[in-house]
Structures
1.
Amino acid sequence: MKVTNSYIGRPMERVEDLRLVRGNGTYVADVNRPGQLYAAILRSAVPHGRIRSIDASDALRVPGVHRVLTAKDFAQTVPRISLRLQPLPQLEPFQQPMIADAKVRYVGEPVAVVIADTAAIAEDAFDRIALDIEPLPAVTGRPQADADSSLLFEEHGSNAAITWKAFRGDADDPFKGADYVRRERFKIQRHAAMFMEPRGFVAEWDAAAGKLTVWGAAKTAWHNRRVLAAAMGLDEHAIDLIEVDVGGGFGSRGEFYPEDYLIPAAARVVGRPVKWSEDRREHMMAANHARDIECDVEIAATRDGRLIGLRGQVWADIGAYIRTNGSVGPRNVAQYMSGPYSIENIDVKCTMLLTNKTPSGTYRGPGRFETDFIRERLIDLVAKDLNMDRVAIRRRNLVADSQMPYPLASITPYDSSTELDSGDYHALFDRCLKEFDWAGKSAMRGKLIDGYYHGLAVGSFIEGGAAGPKEDARLVLETDGSLSVYLGSSSVGQGLETIMAQIAADAMELPYDKIRVLHGSTSHVKDGYGAYHSRSTVMGGSAILVAADKLKQRLRELAAERFNCSTADVALDGEHVGYAGKSLPLSELSTEPVEIEASFYNKKYTWAYGTHCAHIAVDPATGHLKVLDYLSIEDVGRMINPATLHGQAIGSIVQGLGGALLEHLVYDDNGQLLTGSFADYLMPTASDFPRIRSITVELKPCPNNPLGAKGAGEGGIIPVGGIIANALADALAHLNIQPCELPLSPPRIWALAEEAKSAQTRA
Amino acid sequence: MKLPAFEYASPATLDEAVALLAARDGNAKVISGGQSLMPLLAFRLASPELLVDLKRLRGLNEIRIGADGVRLGAKVRWYDIETDARLAQAHPLLAEAIKHVAHYQIRNRGTVGGSLAHADPSAEMPAIAMTCDAELTIVGPKGARLERAANFFKGSLSTSLAPDEILTDVRLPPWPAKRRWGFLEFARRRGDFAMAGVALHYDLDEQGRVVEPHIGAFGVADSPIRLPQVEAILAGATVSEQTIAAAAEAAKQAVDPPSDIHAPSAYRRALLATLLERALRQSAA
Amino acid sequence: MQVQFELNGTSVTAEVEPRTTLADCIRNDFRQTGTHLGCEHGVCGACTVLVNGEAVRACLMLAAQAHGEKVVTVEGLSDDKALSPLQASFRRHHALQCGFCTPGFITTAHALLTSEPDADEERIRDVLSGNICRCTGYVPIIEAVLDARSAYGRQEDK
């Protein structure tokens, strides 16, 4: 009987949950090594300055303090953190030293590492360290950055790093043929991934064996191992980075940070295991910030509502250094501004500005959240000006199925271009409106009901996924007939162990409960890439398919030897091989485990896509905005586990609502980070957004990978800012308010309403 | 964010507790629920030498309702207030205000005494104490003294409590059954500190005119305040839309709220006026 | 100083500094690491444990303050052989992704449903608004807690 599994597509309960709901997960703060000491990191309280001296003699007298390590204790020349993505030579001057050496450039920059018997004692030592920093004027925003009177990198001569240029069509005259042009300025606030488990490492150096083991890896362990090896002067294979359970990443955790070097290096210096657990206040100034941009953009259209061009300048406040992926967000803002709409001519520049703030990096839907806010707002403004229905103008301009593959803007430097792969954007757009009951709800638009004005908005988005170049999988058929799957993919909470087991079970036609998935640690496969750009399912999953094909072939070869026949005559059926009436269980094919390692290569991004609708109500007197209904629909090509996918969609939307309404990392004019706790940084809670709905469909499979899947997991967040702002404008259309800045906090909404009312009185 | 080092004592009696505080000359602090003090310690914004835990002290956690009003022992928790069915009648303003305090887990530990002693300008309990003209009992080395709320709150996180004194109870004056009241606050999310809030009560004479209005506001100054300018407008007037509008305007003029990362001054001022209008309408319904 | 209390049904003793929080005592002295530290300043709820049956933030309590009390952590609500009805409901509804906030939700929901098995959606959302989750967006957590009510003796099911 032929076994045909179909675990793919089933909402399997997650195998991870069995330990996680019991509190039996092992997160890095739960890891302890015999004889360990604890590290705490002294960070600059000055946003910009020259380090004159660090005197730790008083701190060393505190009982329980072992060492206070500064730049000179680590290396003669402090290594710099290299760029992982878009590693352009012109960005090298702005790389961060793994510990501050001559200058400090942001509040939170690591200056010293205290090693003590307990974390509390290590913190006690901070007050006893005399840090003499000569303050320099802080660059805290575009005006100071542009003025160039205070420079973060004197040799560079300017605080502008580089400018990305996105172009398509007639870049010289993108607005040729336009009947109408609208110009606007927008601003999106600095906020961050703010995952719930703060970062941490436990590092252990075995001097006799010359081996370093580090617990706390995530996301991109193989790359990080290479960077760490180079920084420490070790061979890559002398280092093992071990991924344990990871409490969220969202694009931010797992990049190579200063601490990725400082803690292992400290362990080697002190000769004992060193444990570091980041605290939340530290996290807010140490982990990557994101999304801080402002722009001056124009959109051009014909008088019948065909969008023909986008042009403008974006400035990205990227903080004090370019860390591993600081370019991704700014680049994406420029390249993906057209989104799912067919806009022929694009000329958008994005300049990255260096400021004395925490460096930035990717956060879910990097650059996409920002650029969708800009574009969807512009489309609603155009609709209003041209007296067109907002739904009609979008239908008019969405990329059609017949236009696929549709080339998006190209970008330079680090030139790349990409094209939308497949999709029926119109079908999803219409389905979203229908499921949402746009027609029925429209009666409430602009109406005042029980003190609240009601408004609606709709918008479409694209979500890029599955970044290449490759991913590795190693399959091991154990001697008991079970299958171990080792992956280069990394778990950040997305249910990797379950999803990959589903894929492996189907590919090998083995029972699901005979499969276990191990991931993320460098000891698992020779080379891995990791979890970012929504790539794990496509890249890791496809790697499993490639490896499974090879493993099945190998099993046939082994069976052919046993049965003394040709490989082609062997029947491979689930847990058995057979020939001419004879049958053998797989576990008897070999006395040793049978192992295959394989890679899946990919050059093309996948493009999931969809549409969101929102119904909000707002009280302009208090600025209180309620989200009454929020619906998302997305086509992901192929769903492996509908339950986990749905979970990511909802979670992603709520993060977007946090970005649209609540979250903000605030600096004062002196470069001090004012946001220091969860009382300041407001995240969505269970009572804030009760009605969120999400539908995922498999309408147009991706033609570019064997699974037919498109990376998905970031889509939910991407359009939220624009949708909420448009719904707000719709609700208060009678005041003609124009939200151009996030977050739409109650004071901002109130101020918009007040300004609008005074403008009307003056008119 | 590990705590700074301190000693810890858990005395059995109030006298012992006071003696311990007195012996440390201002370097000891009382801890009870700890919901306000522990975060301060975690951020190392306070480093007392000694914490004196009121854990073992008896008799400070009762809610007594009698002829002299509602007495809350300093160790009464928000959960105790929430679950005391008598308070819906005995002091509906208190019952309503406390619904807005923090979250479930904090409500199981946070205390009346702790909140009053901490004196956060946006907190509900200090606002109720101020609005209702509460009387606080404070015990020190020389014995007990009574302090009116109006004299107790000195500024942001600052009260008239000496370092060797312990707040033991707070008395809210008797509440007539026909009393009118209103309570409204506006926070970013459920359980957050209010950006502004209003707590008010008054009685009506036979002609339906306001008698003895108590109009309190919080989140708009460095401590909870009464609004005498607003009270002056309401006293002897009926609560009509005209009076309400005049009251709201007077409230705006009366305050100069602080700005912070959550809300600028102009917004808080306008918010106060809006909340006052709505609370007055609530009270008149 | 020495503290003694009941932890998950067993009497335990530890020698701690006065400044040791209950959370750190549980995690470090007794190696029960299911109680997580997400913020250490009393907002995120990941450290929620039950003290005398009431949900409290273990990061806002000193170990010394737990002296003589009964403490139950997520491990005390768990069993190696089978998931509790609440845990099974979380799994069934996919109410966790990275799992870091989950122990705090489990202990809080358990405390709530034990004393209020008839809690409605609004009450559940209200109570759980003191726990932060960054992954799920809360919708499946609320569904899981609603679905678990029958195991706690909800009136409607009697």
Note: The two ends of chain B are 49 Å apart (CA to CA).
2.
Amino acid sequence: MSELSDELLVAYVDGQLAPKQAQAVDKVLAQDDVLAKRVSALKTAHKRLEAAFDAILAGAEADLAAHPVPRPRGFFVSWSALVQASLATAGMVLAAVMLLAGLGWPLQMPKIVWRDSVAVDMEPVGALPRDWREEVARAQALIGRDSFELGVESQTNAELARFQLARMIGPNLLVPELGAQGLRFARAQVLRFEGKPVAQLLYIDAHGAPFALYAKAREGSEEAGFKRYGAIGAVSFAHDGIAYLIAGEADEPSLMRLAEAVRRKENAPVPEAAANAPPMPNPKPKP
Amino acid sequence: MQAEDYQDSIKPGLVAMLPRLKRFADLLAGSKLAGIALLRRALKRMLAEQHRYQRSMPLDRFAFAELYRQWFEELAAEGGAAREVEDAAQTFAGLFPRKEGQDFDPLMAAYLHSLPPQHRATLLLVYGEGFDDIDAGRVLDVAPETIDLRLVRLSASLADCLSGRGQTRARANLARLYAEEAA
């Protein structure tokens, strides 16, 4: 019997030897039955180990299938993704609008206690490196064909925007004027979430900081609740068959006050033409 | 409409590998019940401390390492006493599903049960997960040479069991491994 160590034989069985070494072992095995049986036993051992681990994995899968991980409530894409992606889009759009239009901002605007940007909390679960492509791709997922339904003029005119958005979201949609809260309406657009339209109303404060009010049709009412998504604070509530989310880099009291202000606003009656208009046709599926 | 909890970037990846993580937890803990509890605690910690995850690292290596760390720290805190009760052979055999069309391998179950959890984990990471000795070593916080040594001795002892060369020889191989690791 030749003397080949277990180290060498295990490396041979695992395919870790160089071709020449493996060939040398092959030659020895061809002439040594005892070693050949040893190698066969090692191969069998590894196969049965793999089979045993496969069986345990099957058991683990069956257990998890029997007790599935609960999906988070709400939509498939989290509100955090919606808020982050949309605010990123909003920021870019606002920057472009400011550059192109060369607008100056009113010097005196009602003061709201926004969060000091220096004092913004770190993200609650740590600072993972962010990939711009991932963020942009998420933003892209929110853009649908009806994102182009609003005309350019309508996008920057609150009344026109409301006229068209009410047809998509619901007749009770609020497009509030928030000047008393220090926010100026900038523009509106329609996003798409799981096939349903989501209105995005963008406001800017005296310092050019973006705030957004999102609206989506839903049933029932809901009290205002605050959540923080990294540097972005958000208050969600439902009112008159519309779910809202107001978001921006502000603290909880400020956003809660904004939410209350939105809730208190009374829209002008929806023009009858809009209220009675047939729903917007669904975009044709892409070929 | 509900504002949801912050969705981090490692959560979907962890969910996708839940069965693999559960298998690892089951093997470490020695039973399904203890395994799922361990996994739950480890996942909670991973999500709470995910800032320690670096994108340059494969997520599975990070997750397995965190799971192992959770188990090891709890074991150290408990002195291992609580685990001994849970780690009965019959409970351990429960890790292997016994349904129609699936063969139960009692010898393999008994063999794996006889090993310390660290050694079971070594075999799983290499032969179940396909990790190399470097990655398996990082997960288990040992040198790659230690992984190599374990693989040789454990494979040899298992081969001895399977080839009928006897439990004595198999045990001798394991004893040799323990002595080598202790040294």
Note: Chain B touches chain A through 56 residues (CB under 8 Å).
3.
Amino acid sequence: MMTLLLALSLLWPLGVAGVVIWQTYRTPSARRDYFSVRWLSAAWPALLLAYGGEAQWTIDAWMLGGEWELNALSRPWLAFTALLWSVAALHARGYFAAEQAQAQAGDQAAQRRLMRLALLWPLTLLGNVLLIIAQDIASFYLGFALMTFAAYALVVHTGTEEARLGARAYLILAVVGEGLILGGFLWSAGEADTLTLQGVRESILTAEHGAWMAALLCLGLGVKAGVIGLHVWLPLAHPAAPAPASAVLSGAMIKAGLLGWISVLPLGEEGISASLTQLGQVILVAGLAAAFGAALYGVFQRHPKAVLAYSSISQMGMMTALVATGLVAPAVWPLLWPGVVLFAAHHALAKGSLFMGTSISEHLPRWPRALIWPLLALPGISLTGAIGAGMVAKWGVKSPLYEMHHETLIKLLSWAAVGTAALVGVAIWRQWQQRHEGGSNRWQWGAWLAGIAAALATPLWLPLPAGSVAMPPLKEWLGIMWPLPVGVVIVAVGGVLLRYVNAKAPPAGDLWWLYAGVTSALLVPMRLIARGCGRVKAACVLASKQAEEALMGYLPRLLAAEPWMRHHASGLMMVLAVLLAALLMWEGQR
Amino acid sequence: MNATWLPVTTLATSLLVVVIIFSLPEDARRPRTIVNLLAAVIKVILVMLMVGRVSAGREDIFSFQVVGGVDFVLRADALGVMFAGLSSLLWLCTTIYAIGYLEGSANRKRFFGFFSLCVASTIGIALADNLFTFLIFYEMLTLSTYPLVVHNGTQQALNAGRVYLRYTLSAGVVLLLGAVLLHYLTGDQSFSSEEGLGDYLNDHRGLLTLIFALLVGGLAVKAAMVPLHGWLPRAMVAPAPVSALLHAVAVVKAGAFGILRVVYDLFGIQLSIELGVISALAVAASITIIYGSLRALAQEELKPLLAFSTVSQVSYIILGIGLFGPFGTIGALAHLLHQGLMKVTLFFCAGNYAEELGIHRIDEMDGAGKRMPLTSIAFTVGALGMIGLPPVAGFITKWYLGIGAIRAEMYWVVVVLVVSSTLNAMYFLPIVHRLWFRLGPAHGQGQWPKEQRLGRLETHGWLLWPMVFTALASLGAGLLAGMPFSPLDWATRVATGEYLP
């Protein structure tokens, strides 16, 4: 039964993609429905699979040997990923309704865009599902690559200047990331002669250069997870992508990097070497830097989705720091990881809802303002930890840290939550400034409401091990809730103060512009060198050609010597005979 | 039981076709097609028989004495059968493709005659059991390819042919010199002899190194290693099926296969390591890989880009030899097959674009995915495979080469692999992007350079289906690498034979 579900959850998205191609050729464009129920259902088998219980598969014929597993970690991960994909698909049906109408009216460009999106959406989903259940390196890498490259179409969808820039940044960093991951996997798997992620984990733990392998993998996977320095694609790609795509990008796909870290790093293992601990500290610092830096930079953004993208970087920074704790203080990890998974799941749904919310504020339904704006803010408030699932998630990571006496980290994370609150505040404010009435679609707001509900109730449906997370006791509530009012107040005060300062907002994508500048500056000397090499090569070819010609020129001259020799043949023979005789005599003398 | 007839029949099938085709009149299109296809199918069946016999542990030998001390020997061993399998399978595909491609053009008799001769020599190279036999077929290959390269008869083609002959004939002389020296030193040396040349190591170290350098240097010209690769990009003027065959099986692969034979079967791994020539090989291969990728990056036309990509990719095989150890060997052998499948796909695609739409330059490919979806999907598969992304076969080889490098503690090779993957991505992904994401003539912007409607589908069926088949095979070889008789499985079998005799 489970095997059937597994086959279905992998083949169904593939089939959906096939049907999209089929209808492009068979169905007349006026009746073409890109977002049919069949398309919406692409993620449903995977969702069922996550709730089917734990299972294991070994498929020898698959690539280098397939090892797939649904365990305590991959089940909840698959559950929230598949749920978010399903909700976002529903949202997409409403979001693209207008574009679909255009396409049906005969707009070729809209047809092309929608066909591309409808085709590559299920493929991206397929990659995401595969990488979650994969326990062997090849399957994981396949899922990761498929998801990464197929998602290009989701980012570039609108085809505007910004979309193309965002997509290019996304792709360039993705290629860099793939290279780093490949290097890391080859190194660690080669040392230990293994083909599974478990083997990689052991190899990193025991190998001499384990920390360097881990660093390579961390950076490579960190491109997806938005680790500081490699995060630049997020604020460029998110504002340009359509809202449902941003939702899965920020909710599900960047979590793939996190899952990769949890799968390959020897978190919570005994006997972690000093260098690995050091690496853990570096990651911890990088995570916290991302958490704070992104918040500081993000609040100055104009586009609500850019603000939300920085919020994602900030949140992922917190999760990075938590993962790093598994290296720095291994004893904490067995207690901590359910909290991290809950944190990730809640962030996935909440951030997904926030991104879907940006499309709601652009097409406000005719509801009372007092209803709609609190609803828009609700997932954000939950994200700061003030209510609902956010509170439970915060407590889920806080209580193990308390138990192991990591008060400093708790304090820092709390302050980072202030940043979250500030970012959410700014995002809602920007949405308010850029709101538009009308044009809403019930699929759009229906999916959005479902997303909010799922986000707020995350601990209720997430299949975590029993008893691993609990509601915080009442006396702790204040300690979890305080960042929200503080953050909102800071934003309000800052907004009032900055009203009189006439400064330009810093560009989204911060370091990207630095990287781009440095690269183009480096290209200049490289072009010069290449041109020089080309000239040297041309000179070499010319020289050897001339040498050859000169040699060939000697040939006729040699041939010209022939008549002379014929003429003097008898004389030459005599000379030869004398020489031979002399040689013989010399030989006889010795 | 020694089925002597098997290797010799396989070779004779191809040679017989040559005779028949040359005796048929120029306009006998149908009989020629039938003979061609029939022979190709028969050969695939014969090679499959050989595969079966080899996997059952039987090796068939055919031999006769030419002059004293020099024998002509054909033997079906695992490595040879692997190469023969590749060449017979791709010959079938390429023949089908060529029949469609040359529809209605002149000199088809000459073309198909030499085409068959070319493949017959490849089979000979695959099954040759000593250096003498190998050399005969190797030179036969050189000469039979020339008419194919200059087939168009244009000035550019004639020039390319001249460059090709210069390179390959001088290489042949060098190779011959090496072979003669070796024969002088050791007498007739069979590829299958167990002892190798280890006995000569103490007394003739310098001479052995010289012989190795001569042999590999001679073979490296066909394998297009830098700086001996100059002929390959020029030979691009040949018709697409010729390029496909040249790059995937015949000439380039013959060079790489020769190096495999020299290192594994003539010198033996142990001796090669002791001579220290293996590491030199790895370094040379790495330089070629990076250089080829860099040059490919700068190309503006599709076929030269693919040519430089071949320069780079074929050296993966040499690199795999350079990583002594079973993993490197498996990677090298598997890549021999994988690269063949992927490259043949890419060249079929390039040919289809050129035939159907007149596309030669990369910037003319905008939006071609809409006009020719199957071709573009096949191209995408091939390109992703060249980058080394799963699930295409290229990933499998990259993986094994990387693991082999780590096992041999040659960490810099991993850097080379990663850099090369990135460079591959840098020149293939923009093309894939053009195919699918840019707007072009198919969307009503501009016009194709020279559009023809060759078939009911996106192009002529004879051009389409071989390409679809090879693309599927490249995918299958990666996705189902764990299956018995997959390229990886067979490569593992050969490598185990080499390392654990």
Note: The two ends of chain A are 99 Å apart (CA to CA).
4.
Amino acid sequence: MRRRPLYWAVHYCLLSLYVLFALFPLYWLLKVALTPNELLYSEGIRLWPSRASLEHFRFVLTHSDFPLFFRNSLIVSTSTAVLATLVSSACGYGLSRFTFRGKSALVALMLITQMFPLVMLVAPMFRLLTPLGLTNSLTGLVIVYTAFNAPFATFLMQSFFDAIPRELEEAAMIDGATRFGAFRRIILPLTLPGIAATSGFVFTAAWSELLFALMLNSSARASTFPVGLLSFVSKFSVDFGQMMAAGVLALIPACLFFLLIQRYLVRGLTAGAVKG
Amino acid sequence: MSAIDIRGVSKRFGTTPVLHELDLTVAAGEFLVLVGPSGCGKSTLLRMIAGLEEVSAGEIRIGGRRVNELPPKARDIAMVFQSYALYPHMSVADNMAYSLRLRRTLPAEIARAVGAAAGKLGLEALLTRKPKALSGGQRQRVAMGRAIVRKPGAFLFDEPLSNLDARLREHMRAEIKKLHRELGATSIYVTHDQIEAMTLADRIVALNGGRVQQVGSPLDLYDRPANLFVAGFIGSPAMNMFQAHLERDGGTPMLTHAAFRIPLPRDLALPDGAALTVGIRPEHIVLGAGPIRGTVDLIEPTGLGTIVHLTLGGTAIKAFSLERHPLSIGGDVQLDLPLARLHLFDDAGVRVGD
């Protein structure tokens, strides 16, 4: 449809305003991270400091535990993303394609798990994990995160499978494939956008989770970076410069991850919007 | 080419019965059409033959071999779906080659088979395209190509033309018939369109409510419908129906309706006062002369002829005539219902009287 230039001008103007609004906190994060300590308070709310330096980054990378936290977060988030996506793909496929006894009860149960406030679950979870030796461990976190993200991820995957017509599998099965073969060669390639969206969602959820990471793991060895960020807050002061520098670094993997899955994601989010 | 045998086959979804002890034999090379309204079980039957639905009771044999427990891939059948079900991420050539690849056919043999099928269907120029870059008619051809490329024992068609516009549908209908003459493969074709059924079938199976209503050649079903359902379903415009009853007039049974009394043959074994449904096809009503008077409600010229909507003693009917009668809406017309063209059905809906 052709529209007037004025329409597009207003359209892009509004979009730019929104992007500005959304990106400003990120800009502020970067600005504070680059401002030397002596200028941080003296220059007030200037948009850019009179002198920028990388000293906070240098400190965070060489004199703090941040690289360790960062590595821990990477391991936990990636494992969670892979595990949760595998589990939810299998469950989503089952819910989408088969009818079986207790299906609606199962779905209701999965929905109910999403309604508990997490705080309520911290203590029981701790009691469950301690005898298993899974506190103060990255494995424990991966298990907990996978368990918490799997139900929603399953609903997400189910909706992607639902969007793929059954006849495609049936055609493949008549053409000579087994059900699993049809799933692998026909359905899976078509669900890639959905898988990308789901794993992206789970990755970011695990990447930014604080409550369980804080409660279940007390040693620095097994802490993730959101917990690490808290270490910049002490009783009497907050080291904003270093905290922001760590925050900027923490953004990198999430950005990379989304860069990687972006081409699938755009298709995934608009799936079904366009016919054919 | 395989014959297909269906013996006492029933299907239930949960506790809902869908098909009731069906018996049906499809000869090798025959083109059989399953026709019926939506929900009559025709697609379910086809999917059971394909192996996509389980058989609740009874036995299905393809080429003499019991297939109840076999997965679809072991049944040596090909199916064309209403939605075509082309693999969206594969090119036309790959779509057609997929079944052969799964059978580990040699690449040279695959290329030859795909080439031959593409040639037959006029798809040579489209082989590298993806399905989304094809028109509806082209997609339909690719779906056909995918089915014929591997020379299966039987073809199953599940309303393959329903998604096409009228003109294309007519064209593809002729193509399918030609293709069947060429390949001579056993085919079972499901449709709700009685014109498709009439034009394509060697034999038609009319289904309703999960039961076979009549099996026969297209003209059999048209000329001698076994019951009211078949009479009403086959033919367009549909057969006219009158609720009448029998009155004996000195030994001669008279078919009596508010608008007419027609003497029937004396040997008709029906009791006096029996309720009857009388059917007559629109093209068999003689317009312009006759003992019966009707009122014209509407005139629909089709170019080929004229469909005249009439009221006869309170019953609305349609007459079709190739001639262009000088009729006016609201006016009266004389007409005749020739005895030889009447179909009689008893109060259970079963054909009687011949």
Note: The longest helix of chain A spans residues 66-97.
